[in-house]
Amino acid sequence: MSDIGPASPFFTGREDLLSELENYFNPQSSITQSYNGKIFVLYGMGGVGKTQTALKFIQTLQQRFTKCYLIVANSEESIKASFYDIAIKNGFSKSSGWEAGLKWIAKLEEEWIILYDNADDPNIDLGKFLPQANHGNMIITSRNSTLTQLSVRSKELKVMTPDEGAQLLLKHAVKSHQPNSEERLMAVHIAAKLHNFALALVHAVPIDDAITTTEY
Ligand SMILES: Nc1ncnc2c1ncn2[C@@H]1O[C@H](COP(=O)(O)OP(=O)(O)O)[C@@H](O)[C@H]1O
Ligand SMILES: [Mg+2]
């Protein structure tokens, strides 16, 4: 439960944010670090695409990071379970506990990156789960904007642009062929109705059905 998976094969857009992350986490960049490494908080509504964008960034820049870990930050239990998993994977005994994973990373003099994903619960003190080291890279995704206090850099992820929305919709809704111009127009229209909201776009019905439905 600490392995980072790939982003969706239908991942679309978000170029600006991806390059902002790339600049921020560039080891050569002169951006000030917080007392414990580089932390980027990505916040915004549930379903807007925070997790996917973070995964895409880490996937694209895998070469830059020597170790990539996922901390499932929904609850204290899941955070501890993720660090425990890291401890076990790195040779600690079962009796060591989750703290061993956290301390192990703090001592690791490498370009590691941790994704604290879905840190939505405002009652969790995430600070105590950040490795106490003056280096390292962390992305925190959350619905909760107050977590920006932990970071030097943060960004609110908003809904997709109309163009991104239509593209994403087409990838899900027209799979059998290259979309034609009628389908493209329809996609812009439907995506707008769905407020270019990623979670809604990926669950939209096939567009050929939508076109047929609206004809009657
Ligand atoms: N840029 C994107 N490209 C393709 N699919 C996306 C994109 N952003 C989000 N999605 C899809 O939308 C849904 C919600 O995205 P997710 O990243 O889990 O949102 P959040 O973490 O903000 O709650 C997922 O099914 C995801 O695959
Ligand atoms: Mg998420």
Automatic annotation (TrEMBL):
<protein>
    <recommendedName>
        <fullName>NB-ARC domain-containing protein</fullName>
    </recommendedName>
</protein>
<dbReference type="InterPro" id="IPR027417">
    <property type="entry name" value="P-loop_NTPase"/>
</dbReference>
